[in-house]
Amino acid sequence: MMRSIIRFSMKNAVALCLMMLLIIGGGLYSLKEINIEKYPNVDIPYVTVVIPYPGASPKQVMKEIGEPVERELMNIEGVKNVYTDGVANVSYLTMEFDLSVSMDDAEQLVRSAVDKVNLPETAEDPEIIFQGPEADPTIFSLGIYSKENTEEVQKFVSDKIIPQLEVIEGVSKVEVGGVEEKTVSIRLLPEKLKEKGLTLDDVKGAITANNMTIPTGDVELSKEILPVRVSKELQSLSDVKNITLFTQGAPTAQGVPTLEDIKLSDIAEVTYGIENESNFTRINGEPGVRVGIVAEGGANAVAIVEKVKEEIDRVKLPKGYEVETLRDQSIEIKDSVYAMLREALLGAVMAVVVTFLFLRNMRSTIIAIISIPLSIFASFTVINMLGYTLNIMTLAGIAVAVGRVVDDSIVVIENVFRRVSASKERNEKLVEQATREVASAITSSTITTVAVFLPMAFVPGIIGKFFAPLAWTIVISLIFSLIVAVTIVPLMSRMFLLKISPKEHKENLMQKSYRSSLKWVLRNRVFTLVMAVVLLAGSIGFIAPKLGTTFLPQEKVTNFDVNISMEKGTSPEETSAVATKVEDILLGKKEVKLVSTSVRGQDEHASITFDLKENVEDTDAFVEDLRAEFKGINEAEEISVTGVGSFAGGAQSQYVLVVNGSDFEDIKKASEEIVSKIKRIKGMADVSSSLEGDEPEIEIDLNETKLAENGLMPAMVGKSLRDLINGDVVTTMSMEDEKTDVKLSLKMDEISNLDKLGEQEINNVMGMPVKLKDVGELKRVNNRTVITHLNQNEYVMVFGQITDSKAGEVSKKVDKVIADIDLPDTVNTYKEGASAAMEEGFKNMAIAIGVSILLVYMVMVIAFGEGKAPFVILFAIPFSIIGALIGLYIVKEPIGMPAMIGLLMLNGIVVTNAIVLLDKVKKNEKKGMPKHESLVEAGVVRIRPILMTAIATVGALVPMAISSHAGIVSSSLAVVVIGGLSTSTLLTLFIVPVLYSLFNPVKKLKKTVIENQTKAV
After folding, report:
1. How is the chain split into domains, by residue range?
2. Residue 278 CB-density burial (10 A; 0-12 exposed, 13-18 middle, 19+ buried)
3. Residues 652-704 pLDDT 10s
4. In three state form, how does the secondary structure of 818-838 look?
5. Is residue 555 a contact partner of residue 647, using CB atoms and an 8 Å limit?
6. What does DSSP say about strands 786-790 and 793-802: parallel, antiparallel, or unpaired?
7. What is the model's pTM?
8. Second-level CATH architecture of 43-132
9. DSSP letter (8 states) at residue 36
């Protein structure tokens, strides 16, 4: 079959040339159409349901919403875990699905399950959220501010900018911070209400009665039928203040009751403006507006950001307005992708240079030059058809493959070049024979390399899906490289190489040196093998323990989040003051380029985003210094600093521990002890837990008898009280040409104690006022601020940031500390987050390596037709670890996932070179050549293609090894392959012949081996 393919290729030059043009055209078209993103678009199997329940306590939220909904969600097929959080006013339920479940199907299943639950009347509609691979899904954000008029900025952004951005294709959501809707607020004065004998319902009725339109029917006037309507609209703040209410006045002298008319302004404060001024945004210390763009899943982030920038440029900003780009993920994406693309191109150039240096023939080099883009462009076409994007994983696959795709072509080119140079014949049969001679070897070696990477494409879990594009890219590139090597290369060789002049073949210095060295090694097999084993044991025993482990390497991050948590009950003013202190520290640093602050005063939180200048080299040290400074702000309960946009597992790895069980008090005690212990471990920072403690609150214990006596039901009391405290939108009106809510509430800062709250009145079913204290007992209690369930059992989550590059070592220390704690029998712990992913990733990668070795052996058994030679090749694989570990030690890189992939790649390279060597040995033996002589002659003939492919691969990976933009793919992958290949090539040339001779013994090796060179083919 191979002969037919080669002959067809050589006899159909026009068809093949057209095919080459088609491949290049398809590749260029695919590059134009393919989406660009930083990371592969992986469906993260988490779905969150958010159900608002205004006015409800955490306990009430959990009992009335959390528990019923989680019971239904637990019944969904494919759900692994259900996390339920009950906090004041809202319930969060997060489901973790099996990766086999489609997220579209998951959404439907979740909606159906939630619809089965009878939610409380006052609960709002559930919202379903899909969590993405990034902690921050924002692809672009900007800040707009003016030193003169903040309100005008807010209106300008709302009217002129947001509507333009929302309609851009691919935009999922436009998030806005710093824009608060204005409302007409009516705050009732408790003492005045009591004095006039009015309730909230009375006022509500008066407001709605003064802002209505009622159609009353039709009348006939002068034979014309006209509709009649009664209309009264509130058109100004003055109209609201002048709303008239009526109450019973003092009776006349005759005892006749009278009506007293009261203006709304007499019993309430009526204002127009931003209701909640404790929530605000500042840009570089100035009040402003933050606009964030969230893209749809799979959308082209780079294209979306470009369109957003175009829209912003079209908007004419008023004088005095400033715009700052807070985050631009398109720059990160383009930098990462283009850097990896540049490294792939440099790698291709290096591979071509190596080919020229060895063959010293421009025609041979041109063939190699043509073979690389054909394989790569064909790969781009298939990658696009498979739905993959152009990201650092697919491009890393290309960068890795560049050094390998040229290997098959090099072997064919070198063999044709050698045969043509040594022969006076000049016909295409010579090219065909030379190609066929190595066809079986390159086919076997390519299939074995494919077998090496194929298991990685099927590694389970999110990490497996994340690395699958890299594996498939390499596999596809290698398959096309084989096709090019047996079709295009023979045709090009016929066109270019048959024209070179023959010359007498002489062994060069390299071949002569290798011949004498190999003879010596074969005479001293035991010594050679012992030395290799000692080197292997030494590298594993002495170097490996010093390297440490991590999951994914650190990416350089310049964008950071500072999260400030205050104690429960802290006033909005205090939260703002602490945020200002943190802001001042950051603005005072010359390394900081930009600071954006967002304060949520009512829930005791503030977040600050800051951007470092590009010239800051050691960002880790800068962040550590910041953490130390922030510790001096004693008013804050916790201030944490995390990198934005870094994939889990870098230097800012997250350690997450779930503490769960059947007894909450035991869980609480255990989690507090765990937090206390791991805070002391070097390399851990921002250690905290989801345990938020208790919060004082007022509880009204309703009395059923009193409720019945006063004509009230519990729901009526709850709703009326919620409207009093939180406010109720009773109507809308037009203010500043905008539809504006009119919100009615009690002026709560005048309620100074429980007695005053108990004096507040609500209307019963008859419309009569009833005091709160007459239907229940008001008391001050301490209740939990958050209640959390994991699969219907309570749990606490412990968090920490691993700041050491050797994340695995720190994680082990934490594990040991936790194991030494005497936890109650009712408490269980297990890891999540990056540390758990690291353990799972290493385990799965080890399995993938094992499976790949088994597949490689099977392929070689089929190729060689026996099991002994493949067994010899497998024995050589472990020795490649020597150079890999030495390389990591020199560059001070820990062992991580990229290094593991590098080791996987080494398996394929070692096997490939060994196959090329032993294939020639087998051919020599079939000709009757003695075993040792066949080993020496095969080595001398094959040393050049083996060194060429090895050095070409090393050269192709050098740009990645020295790059600072390799990201999570990391230079460690390249370092492992370069170091491992340096030693494995020597092992292929010496250890493989030694092992082969030991497994295929002869009586005695003669001291003098035949010196006359045997014709190779």
Report:
1. 1-33+361-504, 43-132, 512-547+866-1017, 558-644
2. middle
3. 457 888 888 888 888 888 888 998 898 888 888 888 888 776 777 787 888 88
4. HHHCCCCCCEEEEEEHHHHHH
5. yes
6. antiparallel
7. 0.73
8. 2-Layer Sandwich (3.30)
9. B
